[in-house]
Design a protein that fits this description.
mainly alpha, 7 helices, 0% strand, globular, binds fe (ii) ion
């Protein structure tokens, strides 16, 4: 059993609370489950971007941002799949944690609020993925996994910046930030609690430290 460091180091401003050492320890100890789940996450991230392009087919700014993002997520899927295949691990279905559906349930149904919430939820999921990949890139004992996660990091950082820019193209910050704070609090709630079984560890399974006092998304500079 590998113990994680007491204080994970990655810190992402969009998130209301950082991931816990316990999540990192659980993820390091079940690398195959996390890798399979990671492949599914990349495919879902591509699907989420495509879904937005289908929902708003006339928006060129959206298409210009999300078409490359969807393609990049599929490239990430290919990278993870190739590693799974090299290791002889089947891409089997895994039960997903409640995280994604909990956040999707917060998206308001009426437009144009639905669009704002969709961007913010997608951005929060990208931000959490980025944070957790950064932890694995630094702390995984497996050099090949450290290299994989390190390689994917820069893109994931760009992705949450991109959803932030899409928000800013359509909404003033006085509207975006209060809603971001609400959704960021829900995101942390969705990751609160304890894992029932070690094999249920996922990229977005429970495991967060206490929420930060001050969320400061304005200070985030998209790359
Ligand atoms: Fe990705
Ligand atoms: Fe991404």
């Amino acid at each position: 059993m590998t113990a994680a460091p007491s204080k994970p180091v990655a810190s992402i401003r969009w998130l209301a609370a950082p991931s816990s050492s316990l999540w990192l320890e659980q993820a390091i100890n079940r690398p195959d489950e996390v890798l399979i789940d990671h492949a599914h996450c990349e495919r879902k991230a591509a699907g989420a971007a495509l879904q937005l392009m289908f929902r708003y087919p006339s928006s060129e700014t959206l298409a210009e941002a999300l078409s490359p993002l969807a393609q990049e997520e599929l490239e990430h899927f290919d990278q993870v799949l190739a590693l799974l295949q090299r290791r002889g691990i089947a891409l089997r279905p895994l039960p997903a944690p409640a995280y994604g559906s909990r956040l999707a349930g917060e998206i308001r149904r009426q437009e144009p609020l639905r669009q704002l919430d969709s961007f913010l939820v997608a951005g929060l999921i990208e931000a959490r993925s980025h944070e957790r990949m950064a932890l694995l890139a630094e702390h995984s004992p497996d050099p090949e996994l450290r290299a994989l996660y390190g390689d994917l990091l820069a893109s994931e950082a760009r992705h949450f910046g991109l959803y932030w820019l899409l928000c800013e193209q359509h909404w003033p910050r006085e509207v975006i930030i209060p809603r971001l704070e609400q959704l960021a609090a829900v995101e942390v709630e969705a990751l609160s609690g304890e894992l029932a079984r070690p094999e249920d560890v996922r990229m977005h399974s429970v495991g967060v430290q206490l929420p930060r006092k001050n969320l400061d998304p304005v200070a985030f500079t998209p790359t």
